[in-house]
Amino acid sequence: MTDKETKPKKEKIPRQKMPEQKPEVRARNFEEVPFGYSPELAQLEANRCIQCKKPKCITGCPVNVRIPEFIKLIRDGDFLAAARKIKEDNSLPAVCGRVCPQEEQCEAVCILAKKGESVAIGNLERFVADYERAHGGFQIPEIPPPTGKKIAIVGSGPAGLTAAGMLAKEGHKVTIFEALHKSGGVLVYGIPEFRLPKAIVEMEVDYLRKLGVEVIPNFIVGKVDTVDELLEQGYDAIFLGTGAGLPLFMRIPGEGLNGVYSANEYLTRSNLMKAYDFPKYDTPIARGKLVATIGGGNVAMDSARTALRLGADKSYIIYRRSREEMPARAAEVHHAEEEGIVFNLLTLPLKIEGDDKGRVKGMYCQKMKLGDPDASGRRAPVPIEGSEFFLPCDTVIVAIGNGPNPIVPKTTPGMDTNKRGNIVVVDEWGRTTKPKVWAGGDIVTGAATVILAMGAGKKAAASIHRQIMGLPDPVAEPEPKGESEEE
User: Rounded to whole angstroms, how far apart are CA atoms 133 and 203?
Assistant: First the structure.
């Protein structure tokens, strides 16, 4: 026998699943669902990475984290160095490790995914961020001498926080103006505790403060001061990251009844105002027994799962397409199904019915079938004649999307918006039609993901830095040429 024939074949390491709460337990509490990796599981998973010479995972990440480098540090047991490596490009790793759709971005282009399962990049990112926090390993990078330049960031969501962190690291004086009393934007008002503990967000914001970023809460730009007034106060540049906080409704009969909520209001009451933590916080919130959530995205899953934890006997998802067309992350749909959320798919709400006191008592719906693809590329739902039915419910949550926050655009002359009210940017770096003003995130794109908003904030920060310092425009990093090596 040859050496090749006698040498035992190395077994492939399967993707390591994160331990998590059992469905029947977590469905009645607001504690985080997954427990996270242990150091041993993290190193085992890191050993699956084949350290490609031309890694596509980096270009698959909207903020271009150097993924193979941080994974190699995990493999070698240097967890704190791995966290610092991520933070060179991503100021919010503990957040991204929890809520980013890695399966559609960095993990989607992982070479291992061609023949099996990708490296669990998101799980590893979460692990090192949590390890750094638990072991007091925060390290503030060396900040250059002050430049004397001032930048205003409007909104402390993912785009604003990212832009603030990048600009502070360049030595600029950065001030964030936040309309709410807590920083974090959608991270604190929109995403439930069981998916993203608020202590994690507070920790990420505290890190920015240590970089020198000033955060001013309860300050509504467009009401307290306008963009023009901030420019008159000596700010050299302004970044607008005000998000998509205007809830959309279906405009069907009965949406004005008591017991009908936008997902924005419902989740804000539970998350930001901590209605879930009763009696410590006595924020009023609907605690319906039969709750119907309209929509099929992550916000709909968050709403339906929150309703269950607030005491609902039945929590329904009403979605007009099939499961395959749902925009929610597969993991969130899976968790919802495990917890007992009832999915009424291919179902269209027609009318919300009220009782004689003006409260919701049910909803008339119609069954649908899928026709040809529409403008979104998904097969369009088509009504089935004679399929109407009545669904008893006492609470309805509308989670069909959000529009741009209108306050800043309406109070900023000279800044163009499109027909939907989103701010128009004139290049990939987020410049608006108004001099010295940049924008990024949901206020530009419409409601999207946390990581895409962060990518926009990072690009805008690079452009702002160069312009106020009199440097040439930034140049995008070229994608690696050639094919990645096969496993």
Answer: 8
